[in-house]
Amino acid sequence: MPLTPEQQAEIDELRASPRPTLRAVSEGMEGHLYRAHPVLDHGLVRVIDYMGDDGAITQAARVSYGRGTKSVSNDEGLIRYLMRHWHSTPFEMCEVKFHVKLPVFVARQWIRHRTANVNEYSARYSILDREFYIPAPEHLAAQSTVNNQGRGQVLEGDEAARVLDILREDAMRSYDHYEAMLSQEGQQGLARELARMNLPANVYTQWYWKVDLHNLFHFLRLRADAHAQYEIRTYAETMCGIVKDWVPFAYAAFEDYRLGGMQLSARGVEALKRRLAGETVTQENSGMSKGEWREFEAAWG
Ligand SMILES: Cc1cc2nc3c(=O)[nH]c(=O)nc-3n(C[C@H](O)[C@H](O)[C@H](O)COP(=O)(O)OP(=O)(O)OC[C@H]3O[C@@H](n4cnc5c(N)ncnc54)[C@H](O)[C@@H]3O)c2cc1C
């Protein structure tokens, strides 16, 4: 269950008592505030707080560039200009704080993004819930034969059932042992900080994650990408939907220049120019390595 009844009651109470404010408000984000978006089987993403909107980005840009920004008259155009030219600091004026519930192996990938502020549920202090991520059948795939860091064909039939049984059994057995170590009738039991060490990496943890919009876009570009593992990607995609409603101009520029756009090396630009001029360019005469050429061909045909 993504949310406990107590957490749901807290959300209902918070949403039932809105307060007036003089601060900038994003109507789109107000709709998300406190609401839990379910992710995976027991996970969630919800917005706890935010600061700023599209206007905060252009306001900061106009302070820093003054007259220079007059040439870009509207907010949308200015935001696109800033994104196009990698002027990142105006995007740092917006902040968001998420509550995320996620399996530990996803948290390990996520925590590599160092430019956020994090507070995690303490398994030294509290007892972890009996909640483990078990992939849905369509995400239970074999090791890819072409990509060492990826999945191949989806498992089916007996093979899928065998793997699911192992995952469930291991999770339940290790949780039973966790509980047994914590308390034994008439005995003191093992400290929570030690008993947790036999739990598998698909056990769920939770944290508050606060980040500015520039660094959030960096996270989303890497983790909403097809190269990212499905489990973290599904969190990133949920967050993309939230950011789109929060700062629609900034998100549209991000989608255009970062998610949908692509970078070219100087050699790539040269190869493209020569091709457009009618020349036959091959890997051998492009100056690119085989790997670079493969990626270039995949992108440009
Ligand atoms: C598809 C994929 C596969 C990956 N595979 C692996 C893997 O196999 N093994 C592995 O270990 N990691 C792996 N990673 C993690 C990856 O190497 C990065 O650690 C992670 O994506 C965080 O990126 P970041 O450092 O740019 O982000 P952040 O930590 O948020 O930093 C943002 C930017 O701030 C700057 N910055 C932050 N801290 C510092 C610092 N201390 N010094 C200098 N500049 C800093 C950098 O410019 C950085 O790009 C993978 C990531 C992805 C997306």
Task: Write structural notes for this entry.
The protein is an alpha+beta fold and 301 residues long. It has 3 domains: 5-133 and 202-261, Gyrase A, domain 2; 136-201; 268-300, no CATH class. The protein has 13 helices and 7 strands. It has helices at residues 5-16, 27-30, 54-65, 75-84, 104-110, 157-182, 192-195, 213-223, 230-246, 248-259, 266-276, 283-286, 290-300, and strands at 36-39, 43-51, 95-103, 117-120, 141-143, 151-154, 204-212. The strands form 2 sheets. A 5-stranded antiparallel β-sheet has the order 1-2-3-7-4. A two-stranded antiparallel ribbon has the order 5-6. A hairpin with a 3-residue loop joins strand 1 and strand 2. Helix 9 packs across helix 10 (248-259). The longest helix is centred in the middle third of the chain and has 26 residues, at 157-182. Belongs to the thymidylate synthase ThyX family. It comes from Paracoccus versutus.
Helix proportion of residues, in percent?
40-55%
Q: So how many helices? A: 13
Determine and state the CATH class of the largest domain. Answer: Alpha Beta
SS elements, strand count: 7
Find the structural class using helix and strand composition. alpha+beta
Radius of gyration: 24 Å
Instruction: Please mark out the parts with pLDDT under 50 across 5 or more consecutive residues, or reply none.
Output: none
Reading the helices and strands in chain order gives: HHEEHHEHEEEHHEHHHHHH
What general form does the structure show? Answer: flat
Instruction: Assign the CATH architecture of the largest domain.
Output: 2-Layer Sandwich
Q: Could you give the distance between the termini?
A: 46 Å
β-strand percent reads: 5-15%
The main sheet comes to: 5 strands, antiparallel
Q: Which ligands occur here?
A: flavin-adenine dinucleotide
